[in-house]
Design brief:
Layout: H1 2-7, H2 10-21, E1 24-25, H3 26-30, H4 37-49, E2 53-58, E3 61-66, H5 68-103
Antiparallel strand pairs: 1-3, 2-3
């Protein structure tokens, strides 16, 4: 999943967290980091490419916000993983319970 690769970078993770709170301009985003505006622009480009972030124009400004479709796709993937682990953990719990009864 490309979105996971994009989120492997801590700066991009932080950008996504910031945009989860509210839409922001690239300048607002860049002001929160000790890197150049062009570096933030590249991070935003990557996040747009994997559909975690989208941009809308408001006059001269570009406002960045989370892309609900891309975020939902990632959330669905994580939810499927949870189902996998919940079933296995339930099976482990049952097995431990059975073995615990044998020891009594």
């Amino acid at each position: 999943m490309d979105s996971l690769a994009a989120l492997a970078d801590p700066t991009r993770r932080r950008i996504v967290e910031m945009l989860a709170a509210r839409p922001m301009t690239s300048g607002d985003i860049a002001g929160s980091f000790d890197v150049s505006a062009s570096a933030i622009s590249q991070h935003l480009k990557v996040l747009r490419g994997v559909r975690l972030v989208r941009v809308r124009a408001e006059a001269q400004r570009r406002i960045y916000l989370l892309d609900p479709e891309g975020v939902e796709e990632l959330a669905d993937w994580v939810q499927n993983l949870r189902k996998f682990w919940v079933a296995r953990l339930d099976a482990l719990e049952s097995q431990l319970h059975v073995e615990g009864e044998k020891d009594e």
